[in-house]
Amino acid sequence: MTVMSDTAETGAGRTIISVDAMGGDRGPATVVAGISRSAKKNPNIGFILHGPKPQLEKLVARKKNLAGRVEIRDAEGVVTMDDKPSQVIRTGKSTSMWSAIESVRNGDADVCVSCGNTGALMMLSVVRLRKLPGVNRPAIAVLWPSRSAQGFNIMLDVGADIRADEHDLMQYALMGASYARNGMGLKRPRIGLLNVGTEEHKGRAELKAAHELITENAEAAKFEFVGFVEGGDIPKDVADVIVTDGFTGNIALKTGEGTASLIGSLLKEAFKFSPLSRLAAILAYTSLRRLNKRIDPRRVNGGVFLGLNGTVVKSHGSSDATGVAAAVKLAFKLSQSGFSEKLAARVASAVQVQQDTSTHGEKNG
Amino acid sequence: MTVMSDTAETGAGRTIISVDAMGGDRGPATVVAGISRSAKKNPNIGFILHGPKPQLEKLVARKKNLAGRVEIRDAEGVVTMDDKPSQVIRTGKSTSMWSAIESVRNGDADVCVSCGNTGALMMLSVVRLRKLPGVNRPAIAVLWPSRSAQGFNIMLDVGADIRADEHDLMQYALMGASYARNGMGLKRPRIGLLNVGTEEHKGRAELKAAHELITENAEAAKFEFVGFVEGGDIPKDVADVIVTDGFTGNIALKTGEGTASLIGSLLKEAFKFSPLSRLAAILAYTSLRRLNKRIDPRRVNGGVFLGLNGTVVKSHGSSDATGVAAAVKLAFKLSQSGFSEKLAARVASAVQVQQDTSTHGEKNG
Predict the structure, then answer these.
(1) Angle between helices B246-271 and B285-295 (to 10 degrees)
(2) CA dist., res. A184 & res. A240, Å (int)
(3) Closest CB from B201, B235, B246 relative to A258
(4) Residues of A with Cβ-Cβ distance to B231 under 8 angstroms
């Protein structure tokens, strides 16, 4: 599962991560700082870095610990946040994003990391890596700090596609369960379907249909379906995987991040209010750091594209070095566990199960 | 605008609030405790309380400060959280919820408060109070703690209806602007339309159409349209009013509340971690209370139904006495400001403007 690169630059025996150096809001210096952190912590990672060679060579040369661990692939073009995905497909062949995905496509790496334009990255990934057999709409899955035993819940889709019908939602349940099983070691993940109420008669038509479909397939697909869950259940210990369409999931994700950020800044202000509260803040420093580490979105940075031949980790556009390092860590973990292959096998067998169930259903009328 | 009741029970000169005593998760004792708090703080409120008379008489008798300020209207039936709205319309005439709305319909009060089943309350309100001329879908608006100067943003719809087309979203913009203008004193409220990105080409078809429609009408309706906003912008100082459909709004609201609640409980745990952090917690007590007061959802409790002949305040099903008191305070404020009449006038004039604009548009081709 791990690609063994035999180039002198990256070193034999290392897990190679393909990294798009461009397209993040903070530029390539931040990306290089991020991979340098990862390299320091983990001697088993090597990198293929994509972007304008002269610029990247200078940045990499400044980080001593990256010596011999980074292969730079020259790509002059940059996909900006404003570029339309369809245009990137047509004219983006020279971009660092394209090049980074190409390294997964041709087997030089099996996971790619990018902080760039999500829509373009998704469309490029779909076009170049292609969807797994049986997958109609790929999805972006994120980790959400939660009350569950593993400390995180998975939510998908958070923005790969703004639409999802009942069959797509069923696929998301399968893919999310596979991610939870392989990435978190949960044998029988609990799946919840996001809705505006937990009663079965509530919500949009496709949600009611998806509720039926997921109920029918839960046993065969080896997950537990807990039914409809609400927005407030996302960070609770109710479901390990929250399934929703990409429009709703994106709004929920950003609303959650925005709320956490507001509370964080209000908390800082509260502690600056009086001399006594400033003293309290000093004493509370480690407690607050502990809390911050638990919910810091940079540390759970990295949405994972599910449903493709190969894994793509999308890091926040505004990622700093900590954020980039978190995304690389996730990419390394997924690459090592052979996640791409396991997910492909799971989806393939589930499609088989669905076909069997459907034939069975027809027989019964 | 304020109804002067001449019954001995409620007292002349008071603003009368109609309160559904039943249907909340914590039962009528909590509702009575809530109105007792309100009565203590504000000598100008009187209540019409709806529910089973013998039970309510006992509860009210225990609160000395409610003497002479509550008129009880007997209603034996209770709308439960599981009741389907359509069934409540058919068979719910004997319920406390029906009775509470009836007091607004017949002019005994002009604002009603209920903690009950949202769907039923909404449908009953629409059927009994009727929609304002020009309003297709009424909406539920909530206050969201924010970075804006007024400390709160308004978001609507958060669950009156799971659908909304571009015309409904335009109506929400008008109604939200009116709420911001009359309820918050903002002369020229900033309106944002919730989407998965701020670029104009992103999102669902009805959102693109709504973007055009709201842009065209902003000048005449005297608000500023800031365009698309994302989930992370809801608590920011970007827009005073966030417009969205009821499905998305409900998910966002509950996700925000769930996130705040998770952080709150993690914060408590962080402070219990070591003797030093416990000491810090004691010193930080007032700071944390200040923060809590700022973001406590109970204190901004009360979604307001907009677009009807009369105002209905929906309090959380799980409201405690503090929550009920907050909802009553909001109801009092709206009743005193003559909000219902002002909103009606605003919507009526906006409909006129839209008709004019549309005629004008046709003339120009």
Answers:
(1) 170
(2) 10
(3) B235
(4) 250-258
ipTM rounded to 2 decimals: 0.82
> Is A360 buried (19+), middle (13-18) or exposed (0-12) by CB count in 10 A?
exposed
Cα separation, B119 vs B116, in Å, equals 9
> Which residue is listed with tokens 């609990």?
A190
C-alpha A291/C-alpha A315 separation (Å) is 22
Cα A141 to chain centroid distance, Å, stands at 5
Query: What count of Cα atoms within 13 Å lies in the side-chain half-sphere of residue B266?
Result: 25
How many other C-beta atoms lie within 10 A of the C-beta of residue A132?
22
pTM over the 0.90 mark: no
Question: What number of other Cβ atoms are within 10 A of residue A323's Cβ?
Answer: 26
- Poorest-pLDDT segment among B80-84, B98-102, B181-185, B307-311: B181-185
Residue of B291, B294, B301 whose CA lies nearest to B322? B301
Domains recognised in chain B with CATH numbers: 1-135+307-339+351-365 (3.40.718.10), 143-299 (3.40.718.10)
Task: Work out the minimum CA distance from A192 to partner chain B, whole angstroms.
Answer: 14
Please tell me the distance from the alpha carbon of residue A187 to that of residue A68, in angstroms, as a whole number. 39
CA distance B159 to chain A (A): 8
Task: Kindly calculate the radius of gyration of chain B based on its CA atoms and give it in whole angstroms.
Answer: 21
Cα(B85)–Cα(B98) distance, rounded to whole angstroms?
A: 12
Could you tell me where the beta strands, DSSP code E, fall in chain B?
Answer: 15-20, 45-51, 70-74, 111-114, 139-145, 152-156, 190-194, 224-229, 241-243, 303-306, 311-314
Q: Take residue B73 and report the two structure tokens written for it.
A: 């209207």
Q: Would the CB atoms of A235 and B259 count as touching at under 8 Å?
A: yes
What are the tokens at A104?
Answer: 């997964």
Distance, CA of B22 to CA of B266 (rounded, Å): 33
For residue range A172-202, list pLDDT tens digits in order: 999 999 889 877 889 999 999 999 987 776 7
d(CA B362, CA B334) in angstroms, rounded, equals 39
* C-alpha to C-alpha distance for A114 and A25, rounded to whole angstroms: 11
